[in-house]
Amino acid sequence: MAFTLYSLLQAVLLLVNAIAVLHEERFLRHVGWGSDQGIGGFGEEPGIKAQLMNLIRSVRTVMRVPLIAVNSVTIVLLLLFG
Fold first, then answer.
1. Sequence-distant (≥ 6) Cβ neighbours of residue 24 within 8 angstroms
2. Radius of gyration of the chain measured on its C-alpha atoms
3. Of 35, 38, 62, 76, which one has the greatest count of Cβ atoms within 10 A?
4. What end-to-end distance do the CA atoms of the chain give, in Å?
């Protein structure tokens, strides 16, 4: 298997899909990454954990509809061109 731009885009798509399907109550809270975890005080810089939780929530919110379209296009391309 050659390392191509399409392979790289497919790997990024799989990563974004993996982030998008993480469920907060079922998975993230059990590993200590729930919405009530990591709340800092006023004026404090958010830690890396809070920033990652914010990134996960943002990806789940913003990328929901575009992921459906991109996944559909990827499936059609794989069916047509193997």
1. 34, 35
2. 17
3. 38
4. 13
Helix (H) / strand (E) element for 14: namely: helix 5-20
User: Whole-prediction pTM value?
Assistant: 0.71
> Which three-class secondary structure state does DSSP give residue 39?
coil
Q: Which of 70, 66, 32 is CA-nearest to residue 52?
A: 32
Contact call for residues 25 and 40 (beta carbons, < 8 A): no
In this structure, is the dihedral angle defined by the CA atoms of residues 24, 33, 37 and 49, taken in order, positive or negative?
negative
Q: What is the pLDDT along the chain (82 residues), one digit of tens a residue?
A: 578 888 898 899 999 999 888 777 777 777 777 666 555 666 778 788 878 888 888 888 898 899 999 999 999 999 998 7
